[in-house]
Specification:
alpha/beta; 6-stranded mixed β-sheet; Rossmann fold; UDP-N-acetylmuramoyl-L-alanine:D-glutamate ligase; globular; about 20% strand; Protein-Tyrosine Phosphatase, Chain A; about 500 residues; 9-stranded mixed β-sheet
């Protein structure tokens, strides 16, 4: 933990006014810093109420990012949704102005150790499980004064509550690759931190140094966000900030079943705790005889729950549960709390979420599926014949494996959005490889038309699954609005 007063005297620019930027600007002003906030959207199009920011003393520049703002700025806090190659940020870096973000600042000032989760998929489910288990453990132990704070890439911006966090509390963070880019010191390698015009430059330097949370998990790594990261190598490098810079007492939770996390985890020797659906490792978590099992370093085994008691759908969610058990064990939770949560937890909204049964077909919302790998996991979660709704905006990811599985697992594939023609072409390309192909491909103009057609095609016993495999930005601001619209349409059938 570092003192925010070390930054006193800096002129701060907050770039991007979503929930995170708004909470951050408010916090910084409350700490006595001079704060300006800017967003490319005009005030009337911003979701957040910017009048409240103006009322507490934040200067606002909306509808543009004029370069003149940089003339009066010592430090930028950037929304992770803004790519680092944006011209405004490129100019800031050329001027050797330091960049940070809300999640990194929170870690800088947080008074308690942080449990962090990253990975290509499963982050939100695992983070939610970890938070719920730690809360259940506090209740079981009657620790009435202990609070569990969950945030980061999900939920509320934690900087808004950092002053309420006290010794003995627990903090659980989901961290995306976009956020983790700011945990690498090389981002600010050209900045002369010792010359920053702040109260204590030597202490402020820690905000721009390499840093990793003391208990961290990388759940898996597969190609993703290649529309944002220049290469898979740089995507992996961003993720590695979660583990690269721990002190010797840190613990790393890694997936033995994923090629990339297995390779990375082996580089850290005894610090790594493994979870696996296929193997059993001392100090790890595994699926053994259809039971969720924790294994101590000395080989002692603790059964958490039977697989049949787990409510979450999908083999991938068993991996998420194993990771959550390891993370919470390292954070001090007991098996009873783990069992209580994983036998009752039914999932997070927009993640294989059951919507309703209509005409004897079951409808599921998996709008979180913004990559082919997530689509593959969703298809593997069902035995029944599937009517699949897929499409949106492509993220420049490989589709061949997903297309093959679509042919094996679906009766109908209904494509919509910008990527519809591309996905159809990949299905046509791989179809000759497969002996039995009963899948029919349909194209629709939008999600509304796709749901209507799915209801016409679905037979009793079918699963109708929205698992787009693509980003939502061709038609929706984010996957949550896409999922909400799907549920609305299904409930109107």
């Amino acid at each position: 933990m570092s003192d925010i007063d070390a930054l006193s005297g800096l002129r701060v620019l907050v770039v991007g006014l979503g929930r995170e930027g708004t909470a951050l600007a408010t916090y910084l002003v409350e700490q006595g810093l001079q704060v300006t906030a800017t967003d490319l959207q005009p005030a009337e199009k911003l979701e957040q109420d910017v009048t409240a920011l103006a009322a507490v003393g934040v200067s606002l520049v909306l509808g543009e990012h004029p370069l003149s703002l940089l003339d009066e700025t010592d430090l930028l806090f950037v929304s992770p949704g803004i790519p680092l190659d944006a011209p405004f940020l490129q100019e800031a870096r050329s001027r050797k102005l330091p960049l940070s973000t809300e999640s990194r600042l929170f870690c800088y000032v947080c008074p308690v150790p942080i449990v962090a989760i990253t990975g290509t998929s499963g982050k939100t489910t695992t983070t939610t499980l970890v938070g719920n288990i730690l809360e259940a453990d506090a209740e079981i132990g009657q620790a009435t004064d202990k609070n569990v704070w969950v945030g980061g890439n999900i939920g509320r911006p934690l900087i808004a509550v950092v002053d309420q966090i006290k010794a003995g509390d627990a903090v659980v963070m989901e961290l995306s690759s976009f956020q983790l880019e700011y945990f690498h010191a090389h981002l600010n390698r050209d900045v002369e931190v010792d010359k920053l015009p702040c109260a204590r430059p030597d202490e402020a330097a820690a905000l721009f140094d390499n840093w990793s949370p003391p208990i961290s998990a990388i759940l898996n790594v597969t190609p993703n966000h290649l529309d944002r990261h220049p290469s898979i190598k740089q995507y992996i490098q961003a993720k590695r900030a979660a583990i690269n810079y721990q002190d010797p007492t840190g613990v790393i939770i890694m997936n033995l079943d994923n090629d990339m996390t297995r390779t990375i985890g082996r580089q850290f020797g005894a610090k790594t705790r493994w979870f696996s659906l296929e193997a059993q490792m001392a100090g790890g978590a595994c699926l053994a005889n259809d039971e969720i099992v924790l294994i101590d370093q000395d080989g002692a085994r603790h059964t958490v729950a039977a697989r049949s008691e787990v409510k979450l759908l999908g083999r991938h969610n068993l991996s998420n549960i194993l990771a959550a058990c390891l993370l919470t064990r390292e954070a001090g939770a007991g098996v009873e709390a783990m069992r209580q949560v994983i036998t009752t937890f039914t999932g997070v909204t927009h993640r294989l979420e059951f919507v309703r049964e209509f005409d004897q077909a079951r409808y599921y919302n998996d709008s979180i599926s913004t990559s082919p790998d997530r689509l593959i996991a969703a298809l593997h979660s069902f035995v029944a014949p599937i009517v699949l709704l897929a499409g949106g905006r492509d993220k420049h990811l490989p589709w061949d494996e997903a297309a093959r599985l679509m042919i094996h697992k679906t009766d109908h594939v209904i494509l919509f959005g910008e990527a519809a023609d591309m996905i159809a072409m990949v299905i046509d390309k791989v179809r000759p490889e497969i002996t039995i192909t009963q899948t029919t491909v349909h194209r629709c103009a939008d999600l509304e038309e796709a749901v209507t057609l799915a209801a016409q095609l679905a037979q009793p016993g079918n699963v109708v699954l929205l698992s787009p495999g693509c980003a939502s930005f061709d038609a929706f601001p984010d996957f949550t609005e896409r999922g909400a619209r799907f549920k609305e349409l299904v409930l109107q059938l």
